[in-house]
Amino acid sequence: MERIRITGGRVLAGNIRPAAAKNSVLPLLAASLLCAKPCVLRGVPRLSDVDASLALLRAVGANPVRRGPDILLPPATVCGQVPPALAGAMRGSVFYLAPLLVRSGTVEMPLPGGCRLGPRPIDIHLAGLSAMGAQITESDTAVILRREGPLQGVDFTLRLPSVGATLTLLMAAACARGETVLRGAACEPEIADTAAFLRKAGACIEGAGTPVIRVRGTEGLLPGGGVHLPLPDRIAAATYAAAVAVAGGRITVTHCRPGHLAPFLRFLRTAGCEVAAGPESFSIARDPDTPLWGGADLRTGAWPDFATDTAPLAAAVLLQAKGESHIHDALFQNRFACAEGFAAMGADVRAEGRDLWIGGGAELHAARVTAPDLRGGAALVLAALAGRGTGSVMDSGHIRRGYEDLPADLAALGARCTYVKTLSDATIKTAPAVQMR
Fold this sequence. Notes:
By secondary structure, this protein is of the alpha+beta class. It has 13 helices and 23 strands.
């Protein structure tokens, strides 16, 4: 078992470049199954979710090869049976529904896993695939899809702009017969990135990144392959920016599009940080002797609104800020499980379902806390940067799902932060969240 050890009180300085986005890499690995020629993904970080995706590809018959930071994805004959352990390891296993259905005609998949953020149904994925001609059998633990002949193009409206469902239906439509129109589609940058990859392989896609996507299918495998560099990870970039807001200092985040995290940068400006953005980089600064300003009332939503993955990061910033703040997460019912860890560090917080209330003005101190999920775990690491003394974030394997080595990234900017192996597998519980004063 690993933990992250953090000693607070160090200001940050330097330059940092985000790795390729996890939320692009995972669907791109699945989409490679639709290509008739070899594909290469450049600059892929060594994340536990990426490792699980590579294991899933091997389990269904593919042969991905990692060469340093790159992954070679040659064509292969695949089957549609996904092992339960791999499906349950990550939410990203859902991206294999459409590719395996196209390739093998039948796919049997246990319901996908991932962070425990509350219900994350796949009903939109299944409704769209059903409209394209898939026959679907569901149980409490698994789903089976079958097709007879090619999938059919369809005019389909998503009941809400689900990123996962948009990606699933985009991949299915690329290999369907005729034209597909997806209305009410998600508009996140990762949608356009996946579409760019599919176009390199021969797909005909228009409107990716807008609410209406049009796809003219190939009625089978895409004829090409190609080399693709996934877009930079906007959530990692937001994490580095939040670290400076919490700890103080000045950094520049390079090779990153500030427009992809514009709501978060606006929030940091409002909280009292200096933010200067260019086309492919931004800098952020805060004098550690200057207090942050709270009073925020943040609500997450679909792109281009405030991203749900940045909500715990914003919470870490607001713990010390002057004034009470509130964050509502519109997507997940248990986004703020990190509140227990914040409270153990001395923060004045109260979490109720989708809502987090923050009293502000906290004088944080070191504590042993437990990472409840990926982004909540990262937020606990950030909060510890401002704490007095040396603390630990336990069960830090969640954090490796989305950051190759977050402690090393922060240490390169001047933080005292590192991974440490522990001898005990016992979970160390944090104090319960306290009531706001």
